[in-house]
Amino acid sequence: MPQSEYVVQMKGITKVYPNGIAANQGVDFNVRRGEIHALMGENGAGKSTLMKMLFGLEQPTEGEIIVNGETVNLSSPTVAIAKGIGMVHQHFMLVPSLTVAENMVLGMAPKKKGLFIDMDKAIAITEEYAKKYNLHVDPKAKVVDIPVGMKQKVEILKALVRGAKILILDEPTAVLTTQETAELFRELVQLKEQGFTIIFISHKLNEIKQITDRLTIMRGGKSMGVYNTAEISMEEISRLMVGRDVILTVEKDKAAPTDEVLRVENLEYTNDWNKKMLDRVSFSVRKGEILGVAGVEGNGQRELVDMLFNLNVPDSGTVTVNGKSIVGLPQRKIRDAGVSLIPEDRMLYGIADRGTIEDNLISNRIYQKEYNKGLLFDMKAIHEMSDRLIEDYRVLCKSRNQQVKMLSGGNIQKVVVAREFSSGPVLIIADQPTRGIDVGATEFIRKKLVELSRAGAAVLLVSADLNEVMELSDSLIVMNGGHIAAYFEDTSALTDEEMGEYMLGLKRQSDEEIGKVLYAK
Amino acid sequence: MRNKRMFLFEAARGFAAILLALAVAVIFIALCTDDVGGALEQMLLRPLFAKNGTFNANSLWVVLSRMIPTIFTGLAVCVMFSANQFNLAAEGGVMLGGFLATLVGIYVPMAAGLHLVVCLLVGAVAAALTMLLPALLKVKLGASEMVSSLMLNYIIMYVVLHFLNNNFADRSKGSTQTFPFLQTAAVPDLVPNTDLTWGFVIALVFVALVAVFLFRTRWGYAIRMIGINQAFSKYSGMKVGSVIVLSQVIGGFLAGLGGGIEVLGRYSTFLWRELPGYGWTGVTIAILAKNNPLMVPFAAFFMAYLERGCELMRTNAGVPAEMLDIIQAVIFLFFAAEQFLARYRQKLVVKGAREEMKQAFDSEAAAKGGNA
Predict the structure, then answer these.
(1) Cβ of B218 and A359 within 8 Å?
(2) Distances (CA, A) of A227 to A31, A223, A237, A478
(3) What's domain A247-338+426-521's architecture?
(4) Which residues on chain B are in Cβ contact (under 8 Å) with A20?
(5) pTM for the full predicted model
(6) Which of B235, B354, B357 sits opposite A331 (nearest CB)?
(7) What are the chain A neighbours of B349 within 8 Å (beta carbons)?
(8) Is B5 on the interface with A (CB under 8 A)?
C-alpha cells in the first residue's frame, strides 16, 4: 500500500513569491514513515520555501500536499500542527523572558480555576515529555539563560507536546557546537526509533551521511532526485547540489607578513548584563597576512569586531591602525584610515535592502571627489564604478538598478564584499564572510580574501566555520569566554580535535605563548 | 517587459481605487441629495468643463493655484519621510513662513524684486530653524519627532496668533488681520486677474530641485539610505544624526517657503486665524507620490481637483462640505491599502516569472545547441 509508505507527499509544488522569485518549480517530495530524510541544497535552492509550505507558513502557487494519504490545505501553521507536523526553525521561536515550561505550553496553557495558568502542571508536562523522549531541559530556567543546545531541545519538545509526528528541522546544527551536534543526533535517532518521521534540512555533507536514511537534493528551485544515503557518495551529492565538483580548498602562497597594521592591546568590555565579554584581549595583524579568529559563537568575537569599528565602546584598552588610535572615531574616519568591514549581520549592517545595487555599492565612498562634481554626484563615474564591480565580483543581477533585496544571499554578500574590498583597504575585517551563502559565492569570496592579503592588505578573519578559518588563516587565535585561549603561528599542522579543545575551554595556552601574537614593533 | 506590465498594473490599480472610492462616495452623496447625477457632474467635470461641455480655463487656473502651497508641503514631507522622519510640522511651517514673510512685506520696504525674495527667505529660514526643535530633540534625546512636531504646530499657531492679535493687527478691519503688505512684496500673477501666480512656476522649479537633491547629491543619498536602514548608513560612514536634522530643516524650509508664496500671492494681508491645513494635505500628497518628488505635482493636482469639485458640488448641488473629507478618506484608503488587488498582482508576477524562466531555459538550450 503506497498510502502507508509515505507519510508526506508533495506533488508538483510551484511557489512564486510576490517579488517574482520562483523559489520552487514543480517539486516532488516524498517522505517515508519513520525515516530521517535530508533535504539538501545550497542557499536559495528552495529548501526552506518547500518546508514553509509543509508547515503552512506559505501556500503553494501550484501543487498538491498529501499528509497521511489525505490531500490537505495547509493554510496556516495551526492547521499543519493539527495534521501532526512540527517545525523547529533555524532561528528559535521562543520567548526569552519566559521559563522553559511557560514556552512549552504557550497558547495551550493548563488552567487553574479557569483563569490562571497552572504553572505546576506546566512544569509537570515539560518534565514528563523531557523524560519520555530523553531530551533534558530545565523547566524552571528562563530561556534567555539557557544554552543554545537546550533551546533547541525546548523547540523540539514544543513540537512534540503539540502532537507532532513529523518533525521538520531547519539547519538544526548551524548554531550548535560539535558536542551539542553529536547529542542532537543521538536524540534524533531515538525519536526515529520511537516512530517519528524527521525531515532534516542541511547543507553539511558529513552530517547527512552520518544520520539520514534518504535524501532529496534541490538545486535552483527544482528537485534533483531522491537517493538512499548509503548508496550515494559525498562527491556525488556535492555534484548534484552545485552542478560541478566544488573544491573547497583555496590555494595560497606562504604569507610574507611585513609591517604591523592593526594593534589591539588589553581590550576590556563588560556588557549590560554584567558579563565580561572581552578580557585583556591583545593581538596584532601585519601587512600581507590573514589572522584568523576562531571560537564558538558568543565568546567575544562579535564584541571585538564592534570595538574595532566603533559600533561599541570598550571599557579600556587601545586599538591602533598604522600607529593611529581609532577608538571612538566616527566610522567615516575609521574608513578613511583604510579599514573595511564585512559585517556579521549583512541584512542589518551590510545593505540597505530597498536600495538599488548601485546605492549599496557607493555607500562608503559618497564623499570622495572621484564620485562628485561640485555639489552633484558624478553619475557617469558612479555608473561606471557600479558596472565594473558587478562584473568583477560576478554579482548575478538584471542591472545595477535592481533592488538589492531581490538578490540571493550569496549575491547580496558579493555586493557587500565588492564595496568593502574595492575601497583600497589596508585592513580588512571579515566577520563570518561566507555564512549561509552558496558554495560558489563562498569560494569566490575566500579567493578574493587571499588575493587581497597577498597584495598587501592585513586581514582579520572572524569565523565560526572551522573549515574556513583553518583553511584561510596564516596564523590563528582562538577565543573562549572573552579571552584569547590560544595562538597558533602556523595553522598547517593544526587538527580539528586540538582546535576543539581550545574552543571549548578544555585547554588554554600560557600567557607567554599567547603573547606572541602581539608582534614586537 | 515585466516592469512595463507592473507599471500598467499600478496605473490601473490607481484608477480602480478612484472608481471604487467614487462608488462609495455616491452612497454618501445619495444621502444628502436627490440629484446624484447632477452632484457627480459638479464634482467630476465642472472643475475643468463648463455646463455646455466647453473647456473652462478660469476654473483650471483655480485648480492650479490651489496646488501651489500643497506642492511645497508635499515636497517638504517627501524629504522628511525619505529619511524615515515622521515630522508633521509642515503645517506650522506654512503658517510661520506666511506670517513672517508678510511682516517683512509690510515693515521692511525694499526695491521691487529684491523685496519679495527677502520676504520669502525670511519666512522659509525661520520655519527651517523651528524644525531644529523636533529634530534635535529626536537626535539628542530620542524624543519621537512625530509627537513633538505635532505639538509644535500648535505652539507655532498660538505664538503667531498672539503677535497677530496684540502687535500687528489692523484695528480698522472687522476681522483680525495685518495691514496690507507693500506691492513690491506681492507674488506677481502668472495669468492676470486670477489666483494663479508665478508661485506655481517656482513650485515646479522646486520639484526639480528637490528631485535633483534627493537623487543626485550625496546629502540626498544619505537621507534616502538613512530612511531605509540607519545601522547600514552609520556603518557606511554617514553622519546619521546630522542628516536626520538636515532632512527636517529642509522640510521646514520648503514648508515656510510655500506659506510665504501662498500668502503673498493669494492675499493682500495675513489673515489666517488657524492652521491652514496645507501641511496635512502635504502628508497625503507625499504618500500618494510614494516620496518621489517628481510625482508630487500629479498628486497635488489630484487633490486640488478633488477639492475644487467638492466645492462646486457644495455650492451648486447642496452636498455638504464635509463630504470632501469623506471622499478623500475613501480614495486615500484604497490607494494606501497595499493588499488592494494583491491577488491579481500576484497572478501577474507569476506570469512574469514563468516567462522569465522560459526565456532563461530557451537561451540555455540555444547556448547548448551552439556548442554541440
Answers:
(1) no
(2) 12, 11, 9, 39
(3) 3-Layer(aba) Sandwich (3.40)
(4) 2, 349, 352-353, 356
(5) 0.76
(6) B235
(7) 16-20
(8) no
The ipTM, to two decimals, is 0.83
**Which CATH number does the domain A2-242 belong to among 2.130.10.10, 3.40.50.300, 3.30.360.10, 1.20.1440.230?**
3.40.50.300
Q: Which of residues 239-268 of B touch A (CB under 8 A)?
A: 239
Contact between B231 and A22 using a beta-carbon 8 Å cutoff: no
Within an 8 Å CB–CB cutoff, is residue B8 touching chain A?
no
Cβ pair B221:A362 closer than 8 A = yes
User: Chain B contacts of A329, Cβ < 8 Å?
Assistant: none
- Residues in A closer than 8 angstroms to B354, CB to CB, are 16, 22
- Shortest distance between the Cα of B361 and any Cα of chain A, in A, equals 12
Rounded CA gap, B234 and A331, in Å? Answer: 7
- Burial (CB count <10 Å: 0-12, 13-18, 19+), residue B210: buried
Task: Break chain A into its structural domains and give their ranges.
Answer: 2-242, 247-338+426-521, 354-423
pLDDT per residue as tens, chain B (372 positions): 456 676 777 778 777 877 887 788 888 888 888 888 888 888 888 888 888 888 888 899 999 999 999 999 999 999 999 999 999 999 999 999 999 999 999 999 999 889 999 999 999 999 999 999 999 999 999 999 999 999 999 999 999 999 999 999 999 988 899 999 999 999 999 999 899 999 999 999 999 999 999 999 999 999 999 999 999 999 999 999 999 999 999 999 999 999 999 999 999 999 999 999 999 999 989 988 889 999 999 999 988 998 888 888 888 888 887 777 777 777 677 766 655 666 676 676 667 666 665 655 555 444 433 333
Q: Does residue B233 sit at the A interface (CB-CB below 8 Å)?
A: yes
In chain B, what are the domains?
A: 57-318 (1.10.3470)
- Judged by a CB distance cut-off of 8 A, whether residue B347 touches chain A is no
d(CA B305, CA B64): 8
